[in-house]
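[Discussion] Sanity-checking designs against the backbone

I'm trying to build intuition for which residues belong where. Below is a structure token string of 97 positions. I'd appreciate it if someone posts a full sequence so I can compare it with mine line by line.
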């Protein structure tokens, strides 16, 4: 349990681009859920700010998390987002208690 990587990320998307971003976010999530070492990956958006995507993810280890970050579909998603963000993504690393 100590070696798990748990993240919570908020991605503020420019409202003009949210309808372009959501399909690729869902497609990327579907790939991620198949990754060995991904225990949980939930893609949500804020009710009061529907252009803010929130991701909660749990990986079994730092190695599986690092491997995840190197996958083409993850890199493609973040490259696609680069000019569609309204703010710098907020990523929080968590630990179980």
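Best answer:
Here's mine. Compare freely.
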């Amino acid at each position: 349990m100590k070696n798990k990587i748990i993240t919570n990320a908020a991605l503020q998307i420019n409202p003009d681009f949210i309808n372009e971003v959501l399909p690729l976010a869902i497609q990327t999530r579907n790939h991620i859920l198949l990754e060995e070492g991904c225990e949980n990956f939930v893609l949500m958006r804020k009710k009061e700010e529907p252009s803010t995507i929130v991701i909660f993810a749990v990986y079994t280890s730092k190695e599986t998390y690092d491997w995840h970050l190197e996958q083409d579909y993850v890199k493609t998603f973040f490259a696609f987002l680069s000019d569609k963000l309204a703010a710098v993504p907020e990523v929080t690393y968590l630990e179980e208690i």
